[in-house]
Amino acid sequence: MSAIVVLAGGVGAARFLEGVVQVAPPATVTAIVNTGDDFALHGLMIAPDLDIVTCTLADLIDREQGWGIAGDTTACMDWLGRLGGPTWFKLGDRDLALHIRRTALLRAGYRLSAVADAFRQALGVAVRILPMSDDPAPTHILTDAGELHFEEYLVRRRAQDVVQGVRLHAAGPALPTAEVLAALAEARLVLIAPSNPVVSIGPILALPGVREALRACSAPVIAVSPIVGGAAIKGPAVPLMRAVAMEVSALGIARAYSDILDGIVIDTVDAGLAPAIAALGLRVTVCDTIMRGPAEKAQLARAALALGTAVLEG
Questions:
Q1: Is the pTM for the entire model greater than 0.85?
Q2: How many domains does the chain have?
Q3: Mean pLDDT on 122-146
């Protein structure tokens, strides 16, 4: 049984998880990770959020970028470009090893869940890492330039297109894994990381049975707002939230999750929103949520855990 389950996207969630493992034993933590960003390129299966979370917890991440492997080289990409191949999605040589191995295992019949578990063990990560689904569940962005896979919208086109809508699970029906549902049922605390609510947490919550499992579980469900002062810390959350008619504020986050939440942690600059959030029936903790370094990551995780404890104690 995992004491703490964290619903996670990429960079923001990975940093938050670094805080969680400072204040709780890593082996008691499970991360349920978005796979809506997963896509095929160069004949390889790429899983951006899974790799960011795994490599961050393994202390291998390129911290300046927030993705990729520190000290990686790009010999393969350099040659690929010389040969006329696509280079818009930068992949380091060690990075490519992950994708080559993942693709080989998937083609051999292994589930993505098994591959993710093998990778985290090989890299010395104690946190259990679960893909949200073993089924393809790509997130597509509807734009003025047409329908784009999220990574093409974000990286290739640098999030410059006008967003008109979002299509989750664009490949067809996807199901949560048995491991995901069991983790939620057995959790003592569920945390929703400060990830993009539309394209990181949204795909997880859109899986059949996940919201129901969160409403049914006995554990407190606590979110950390990724919106501070009406802006996103990182990434294109603002245009995506607007495209799905979600208010771009900590209150908007609370409303979007209100059917599954017991409490939310918001930043000090948003303290004025606390009464409106409390009026939704939620507990609110106000603190500094900007994760500048290890101390701030631990402080934020500690605040989320404390809020969960307060909910349990009534």
A1: yes
A2: 1
A3: 98
